[in-house]
Design goal:
By secondary structure, the protein is an alpha+beta fold. The chain has six helices and five strands, in the order ααββααβαββα. Strands 2-1-5-4-3 form a five-stranded antiparallel β-sheet, sandwiched between helices. β4 and β5 form a beta hairpin. α1 runs parallel beside α6 (142-167). The longest helix has 26 residues, at 142-167. It is globular. The model has no long low-confidence stretch (mean pLDDT 86).
């Protein structure tokens, strides 16, 4: 079994026993660390109340929802519009969005969220979710993450979404 297959199998085994948000968080945090990244976020936008399971700093996630950033966030906007996994941020990438969105990215960087890869996840009846792996490390190039782990991250995103929907 390859290292990537081993990481995925460990994740699948662990997610099968998770039943609460903190257990899902623990499983996804372990996967994130095994891939050499720092943060993950699973955001489900259904109805008026978003569901977030993440390892992002609580001070950031509180601010994010308090200020309605889910409406502004270029990553979430792109996840709503696209179906394929994509990378974002990183050194050398051109600024994304309008001035307010660039300011949003600058603020996220102060919380250790500089770049990452995101899997848009479609559900029935217009439901959507997104699974993101992120880092604050300047030396990580998100396009390399996509090349190395595209299939793994897509499978993990869908498996996490299905498991969370079943339990939360």
């Amino acid at each position: 079994m390859s290292p990537v297959e081993s990481i995925f199998q460990e994740f699948i085994d662990a997610i099968q026993t998770a039943t609460k948000a903190d257990e899902f968080e623990r499983v996804a945090t372990r996967l994130t660390q095994r891939l050499g990244l720092q943060r993950f976020a699973y955001l489900r936008l259904t109805g008026d109340t978003p569901t977030l399971i993440s390892s992002y700093p609580k001070s950031w996630t509180s601010r994010y929802f308090q200020l309605g950033y889910q409406q502004l966030d270029p990553v979430v906007r792109r996840a709503r519009a696209e179906h394929a996994l994509f990378s974002w941020g990183g050194e050398g990438s051109s600024p994304v969005g309008n001035r307010e969105q660039r300011r949003f990215f600058d603020e996220a960087t102060t919380f250790g969220i500089r770049s990452g890869i995101t899997v848009p996840i479609r559900g029935g009846f217009g439901r959507m979710a997104a699974f993101t792996l992120a880092t604050g490390d300047r030396d990580v190039h998100p396009e390399r993450l996509v090349a190395d782990w595209k299939d793994l991250v897509q499978l993990v995103g869908v498996a996490l979404s299905l498991s969370c929907r079943r339990q939360t």
